[in-house]
Amino acid sequence: MQGRIDGLGTATVSLTYFADGGLKRITAVSENDKFGLRGEASAPALAILDAGGSRLATIVVRNGDKIKITGPADGSDRLKISGSSSSDKIARWVFDNREALASGDTRGINESIARFIGENKSNMASTALLSTYFNPRGYERTADSLFSLLSPEVRTPALTHNFNSVLASQLAASAGRELSSLTLYDRSDSVVTFSTRRKSYSLIAIVGTDHVQRDSVIPAIKSLSTGSISPRVAILEISTAPDSTAWKNSVAPDTVSWRQTWEPVALTSHALSRLAIPSVPFFIVTDSTGTQLFRGQSVTEATSAIAKKISSK
Question: Of 101, 120, 125, 186, which is the most buried if we count CB atoms within 10 A?
Answer without folding.
Answer: 125
